[in-house]
Amino acid sequence: PFIGCPGEGSSNQGRVTALTVSGGTGLSGTIPSEIGDLPLLDNLMFFDERNLTGPIPQTFSKLTNLRVLTLNSNSLSGSIPSFLGQLKKLAQVDLSDNRFSGPVPTSLGSL
């Protein structure tokens, strides 16, 4: 469902490796959990989408190739999931300017 959308990048096999959604798209609701089914995704950016709400999907724990996760300036809520710290390739995370609650998981210290 994401193939051919603006802000999408693909490898030479036609697999989605990057997805960027930024302000002005009119997106609202939660981040689709199906994004977790994109095993080659290494760069995921949803930013400046004020009507994007809810938690970070649990399915993101399957994004083992993810290097960059940018989810800043949205209205995301809930706790920051500890599984983010278990994504071994994750090198850059920006979750600023959201409505997250609770402590930052100690597992993020290993990034």
From TrEMBL:
SUPFAM superfamilies: L domain-like. Keywords: Glycoprotein, Leucine-rich repeat, Membrane, Repeat, Signal. It is found in: Cell envelope; Membrane. GO terms for cellular component: membrane. This is 2-alkenal reductase (NAD(P)(+)). It comes from Opuntia streptacantha.
